[in-house]
Amino acid sequence: IEMGDGAKYIKGLKDVYDIIMLDAYAGLSIPRQFLKHDFIDDARLALKDAGILAINFTDHSMRSFDFEGYLGYASKSFSIMHVRSGMNSIYILSKVLGMEEIRARILASLQEEAAHIREGYSSIS
């Protein structure tokens, strides 16, 4: 596996991914490049029409930037669903899919070694 900046990696890609999952942290904060409008735009373009973007925010990370502005900008291109899990909030963004379709896609994409993640997403209702 090659390590790198995921925000740079998806830049310029079009209709490539079914799902992009962002759970990136430097200490208690999400790196700034993932909190810019450019990242939302690049992710939207990199996703296939029925693709989804799932972002995990901790309570702390949501207080460290203009979270409402970020979601407001994202809501111009995506439907946004929220799943609360302990001290984390998972936001699931989709251009066209409903909640049941999103839930099925997430569960299908997770491999056995990610059982703890699959278990968390299984509570989506």
Q: Could you characterize what this model shows?
A:
It is a single chain. With 125 residues, this protein is α+β, with helices and mostly antiparallel strands. The chain is built from six helices and four strands, in the order H-E-H-E-H-H-E-E-H-H. It has helices spanning 6-10, 37-46, 59-63, 67-74, 99-109, 115-121, and strands spanning 17-22, 47-58, 79-85, 88-94. It has a four-stranded mixed sheet with strand order 1-2-4-3. 23% of the residues are buried.
Sequence-ordered SSE layout with sheet pairings:
Layout (H helix, E strand, L loop, with lengths): L5 H5 L6 E6 L14 H10 E12 H5 L3 H8 L4 E7 L2 E7 L4 H11 L5 H7 L4
Parallel strand pairs: 1-2
Antiparallel strand pairs: 2-4, 3-4
What attributes does this structure have?
four-stranded mixed β-sheet, single chain, 37% helix, 125 residues, 6 helices
Strand content: 25-35%
Spans of 5+ residues with little confidence (pLDDT < 50)? none
Please state how the strands of the largest beta sheet are arranged side by side.
Answer: 1-2-4-3
| Helical content (DSSP H or I, runs of 4+) | 25-40%
Secondary structure tally: strands: 4
| Structural shape | globular
Number of helices: 6
What is the mean predicted local confidence, pLDDT? 84
N→C terminal distance: 33 Å
> What is the C-alpha radius of gyration, as a whole number of Å?
14 Å
